[in-house]
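Posted in: Structural Biology > Protein-Ligand Complexes

Title: Requesting predicted complex, 3-methyl-2-oxobutanoic acid in pocket

I'd be grateful if someone could produce the 3D structure tokens for the following input. Sequence and ligand are given below.
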Amino acid sequence: MSQIKIFDTTLRDGEQSPGCSMNLKEKLEVAKCLERLKVDVIEAGFAISSPGDFESVSAIASAVKDCTIASLARATVKDIDCAWEAVKHAADPRIHLFIATSPVHMEYKLKMTPEQVLERTAAMVAHAAKYVHNIEFSAEDATRSDVDFLCRVVDVAIRNGATVINLPDTVGYTTPAEMQQLIETVLRRVDGADRVELSVHCHNDLGMAVANSLGGVLGGARQIECTINGLGERAGNTSLEEVVMAMHTRPDLYEGLETRIDTTQIYRASKTVYNIIGQNAPLNKPIVGRNAFLHESGIHQHGVLANKKTYEILTPEAVGIHTQELVLGKHSGRHAFESRLQSMGFNLTPEELERSFAEFKVLCDKKKAVDDADIEAIVTHSAMDEGAENGWKLDWFAVHTTNFTTATSTMALKRGEEKQEAVCLGDGPIDAAFNAIDQIMKPVEHTFELYRVGSVSQGKDTLGEVSVKLKARERTFTGRGLSTDIIEASILAYISAVNTLNAYTEKHKED
Ligand code: KIV
Ligand code: ZN
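-- Reply #1 --
Done. Output follows.
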């Protein structure tokens, strides 16, 4: 068996796309999911792009032990030095440097001639090689580059020490057959290309990123770059769950090739990332969407009842979705709760278990039947409350709203022994409640990047799940709230986001 390495760039290409920014704690949470998934490489960020990125790349480099940790760098000394500083504590650090090789990028973006690009490639790969052996070189916009020139650049990169050569389809322009041919051409024409790892990095502008990556694998690529849920610039990148499950489901096509991914961790990783960015999977999203394993039409249901294989090419269990919907309720004990969590793939620390069980008991008083979706929401929502330890907590609230008067809210918050109340008007109950919270917590000026209300499961007593993202000082502060009452869920989410913002403001008041 030959291994196809999975290089995950959720925290770099994924995180840089609009609405997907994450704070340090969230990035560490995603990195831990990726480690559990057993991805081979985590691209933790673009260290030079901001102090926040540098901090998170180096935190992930120290926290994760079982994956290579890469930082992106442009082909400049400053970028490479910064990338190295950020990843150098990793168990297996990698510098990933790139330069564009297509005519349009070289002329209009870089304003460099092809000869200058060749020289820069040689010098910068050699510079990175002073720090580390594990060097990935990417020829940005490779699929729109002149193939003779591309082969010369790859040759120069290999001669100067690159160990991985990545050929990105930066603008999602290529096709599976073309990608296969490009990899075959480089393997055939460049000396030493068979001794390095060839890699593909495909964007999804024409909906072909997964297919193009698989085309690259058939051509001889041995690393696939991808993201959880296909996040990424514009239409996104190759989706990790789709490309991995395609290979897993069709071993006849990818004979002798396998990834080391633990597929049973896919659903949890997908859910964690969606929760963090405040989105849900589209219902029909392959592998992780709510409908991905449902059979609606009578003919399909009939077939599946006779034999699942009639309409099912992979099982939900293979990606960590548990379909046996045993319902827990207020008479269920800690043991039943814990064993359900284990069967769902969650192994919690004693403190996490304690907190989740307490939340589960509160929910049981509000809702007759607690199902897997509720339990999953409780577990994934707990413990993400940065800054909450010394922050404000909800004591009680009241809102009054009609369709003919101005909404009012009375809010009581507590922080340790301190307790404050505020009464505010607002343009609707949420605005009134948030105004009252502002009056007590006094956050610095901020804007709303996201306010989203979703439901965890079906039914009118379902849990409401609210995500709030605030933007201040070029950073994003996230809060989440969970309750059968969506006003309460909104209040909890906003308090949590403001606690995080206030903790950050306090820490950086001298800056
Ligand atoms: O799409 C792209 O070309 C990239 C490179 C920086 C690898 O993200
Ligand atoms: Zn990209």
